[in-house]
Specification:
The chain is mainly alpha-helical. Among the domains are: about 240 residues, Serine Threonine Protein Phosphatase 5, Tetratricopeptide repeat, CATH 1.25.40.390; about 80 residues, no CATH class. Helix content is about 40%, strand content about 5%. The strands form 3 sheets. Strands 4-5-6 form a 3-stranded mixed β-sheet, with no helix packed on it. A two-stranded antiparallel sheet has the order 1-3. A hairpin with a 5-residue loop joins strand 5 and strand 6. The protein is globular, with a radius of gyration of 21 Å. The two termini are about 20 Å apart. The N terminus is likely disordered. One of its GO terms (cellular component) is cell outer membrane. Belongs to the SusD family.
Length: about 475
């Protein structure tokens, strides 16, 4: 497939339905709605939006690959090549014809295509507030998907590129005949377009229409995405204001130590801001997160001893003995298996069927984003208060000082196995640490190396002369 085809197919393959029931509105189902028949009601665009949510859940996006790349391209995990999955990715040695480079790119643009169908729909019948709320969700998903593309394909962390470096095409219309072969926007342009989309999302959405389920984007979710983007680009005032709105909303809580592990197989817990729905209907089988982390036919992605060593005894996120043959619940996130492997057994634990919702944004991330923004805007004392909310609820020691290093350490502890580590290293201009030369195979690329971005898929640059390839590929 080619780039422009992804944008067309993303909507044309939305299917053949002409009406929807309550069951149809389940975001875990791939709903099909052809724009060639009619998109004329609020229900129609809600069905298409649910298709976007479903696409986010698939294994080539949040269902596995997006998260695992953020771990194996760091100092958190390595690939043991048990099923030869994530071997090249862990080496950070992809090329423009690597399968994951194409499928991740394609999947995110199909989500964007679905969002653009919703955003561009006109003359709809139905309650205006409901229509606006649906469109607001689409704007937020469009911003998030473009930012996710930028994180892996943008050149902002290569050779000192910064915001003026090549980003990704920011696509704002479905089947735009005047721009079928878009060029890449700069990283700074992608950031600003995403901010604009998120501001539009918040303006269109109504707090009273936020779904009680965390499986849908809400006003708080849109603000959290904006805070995350601002944190990545060091726009500290924007990060502060956006994260402050979320943490002061009264809608979420930091999980207690006893609540922490159960939350990862509990839908819409008190810390969830936005999560991807999974049910037995969606079951990806061996292609889910649990099966790439745990022992079994896959089990390729294993925690590095360096990660395990950062946890104190008693920290629920740390290490305890774990034997899957006993069928007992894990005592901590990381299980030391009888074979000596350190495995993520506490996050995304269900394997048969795989039905754990996938956290995209947790409240704890926003607490740490807020702490970092407070520190960077000169309020270290308040930053310490917020930083310590996490270890105090995990069985770990509090910090005596809010420093950048301490906040990054706590982010590594709290968000391990959720896909954040590579991006934290990149945004803070760090080399990729290589503490284990035997288990790690990427060799620790220095910050600025071409390895800090994935290649643009060959199938895309081959058909689109306006799409420049990334450095080093």
């Amino acid at each position: 497939m080619k780039f422009n085809k992804y944008l067309i197919i993303s909507a044309l393959s939305l299917g053949l339905m002409t009406s929807c029931s309550e069951e149809d509105l389940d975001p875990t189902l791939a709903q099909d709605k052809s724009i060639e028949t009619s998109v004329s009601t609020a229900g129609d665009i809600e069905v298409i939006l649910n298709g976007a949510y479903n696409r986010m859940s698939l294994s080539d996006y949040y269902g596995r690959d997006f998260i695992i790349l953020g771990e194996v391209m760091s100092d958190n995990t390595y690939s043991n090549a048990n099923s030869n999955r994530f071997v090249i990715e862990a080496q950070m040695d992809l090329n423009s014809e690597s399968g994951i480079a194409e499928t991740l790119w394609a999947r995110m643009y199909t989500v964007i295509g679905s969002a653009n169908v919703v955003i561009g729909a006109e003359g709809l019948s139905g309650d205006e507030d409901r229509i606006n709320h649906i469109k607001g969700q689409a704007y937020a998903l469009r911003a998030l998907a473009h930012f996710n593309l930028l994180q892996f394909y943008g050149q902002q962390n290569v050779s000192g590129g910064g915001e003026s470096a090549l980003g990704v095409p920011y696509v704002t219309a479905f089947r735009d005949n005047d721009n079928l072969f878009p060029a890449r926007n700069t990283a700074g342009e992608v950031k600003q377009f995403a901010y604009d989309d998120l501001d539009m999302a918040v303006s269109l959405m109504s707090e009273g229409l936020n779904a009680p389920s965390k499986e849908y984007m809400t006003t708080w979710g849109a603000l959290a995405v904006k805070a995350r983007i601002a944190n990545y680009f060091e726009d500290w005032q924007i990060s502060l204001e956006s994260s402050e709105a979320v943490v002061n909303s009264g809608q979420f809580d930091v999980l207690s130590r006893d609540e922490f592990l159960p939350a990862f197989d509990t839908d819409s817990d008190v810390s969830a801001i936005f999560e991807i729905a999974n049910t037995p209907t969606d079951n990806p089988g061996i292609n889910g997160l649990a099966n790439i982390y745990q022992t079994g036919s896959y089990g390729d992605v294993v925690a590095l001893p360096n990660l395990a060593a950062i946890y104190e005894d008693g920290d629920i996120r740390g290490v305890s003995d774990y034997d899957p043959a006993t069928a007992l619940a894990p005592e901590t996130v990381i299980g030391l298996h009888p074979d000596g492997a350190l495995r993520n057994v506490g996050k995304f634990p269900s394997t048969a069927p795989y039905e754990d919702n996938i956290a995209v944004i947790r409240y704890e991330e926003m607490v740490l984003v807020y702490a970092e923004a407070l520190l960077e805007t000169g309020n270290a004392a308040e930053a310490l208060t917020w930083l310590n909310m996490i270890p105090e609820n995990r069985g770990a020691s509090s910090y005596s000082e809010a420093t950048k290093d301490n906040i990054l350490l706590e982010r590594r502890k709290e968000l391990a196995f959720e896909g954040f580590r590579f991006h934290d290293l990149a945004r803070t201009e760090m080399d990729i640490p290589a503490p284990d030369s035997i288990l790690q195979t990427h060799g620790g690329p220095a910050y600025g190396s071409y390895n800090f971005a994935l290649p643009i898929p060959f199938a895309e640059v081959d058909v689109n002369a306006n799409l420049e390839q990334n450095e080093g590929y």
